């Protein structure tokens, strides 16, 4: 989340201008993430966040107009980590299709593992809201990152329509992580996220390197 200037009044958030205020904001966001993970969305209150951060409720309201802008800020923080984590993994990926897919799923796994208790409450959002729009932005960003890294290796894809196959690979990986994060305990598998990523990588590569599927549309 941008803590600099230029966003005054937008989406119910007033950015700090001094370093001391920026430090308070960092504490508030860390506490908001912690409270959401420990108590869930139903019991997420400004008072609980203030108590966890060791600041007054008024100090939070000086930056956020209410609960929803604060939740949007937490979502932005988590999704920024996801985008940066995926980008970093892909920069260091082995220069072949398997290396790209491996880096991509590991970037996702690291972010979902770190935010596993809060992602389920933040992945939604009513259409047109800041929560939903930020999620859509993250999807577009990760898709662009994946395609930029995978496109140079499209010759390794043996499906009848390699371009569509790469799009479906990104879509399937992303959907799988989101779906798993929202599944309740007792139904979801108990694998660590990094192990889950290996299984998903292998399934994705098996699909991309197996012949089949309809040819590209004319």
UniProtKB/TrEMBL annotation:
Which PROSITE patterns does the record cross-reference, listed alphabetically? Answer: HTH_TETR_2
Which GO molecular function, any one, fits this protein according to its record? DNA-binding transcription factor activity
Keywords in alphabetical order, please: DNA-binding, Transcription, Transcription regulation
- HTH tetR-type domain location is 22-82
Q: Which domain of life is it from?
A: Bacteria
Q: Which residues bind DNA?
A: 45-64
Record-annotated membrane-spanning stretches: none
Q: Which PANTHER family match?
A: HTH-TYPE TRANSCRIPTIONAL REGULATOR BETI, HTH-TYPE TRANSCRIPTIONAL REGULATOR RUTR
Q: What is this protein called?
A: TetR family transcriptional regulator
Taxonomy of origin reads:
Bacteria, Bacillati, Actinomycetota, Actinomycetes, Streptosporangiales
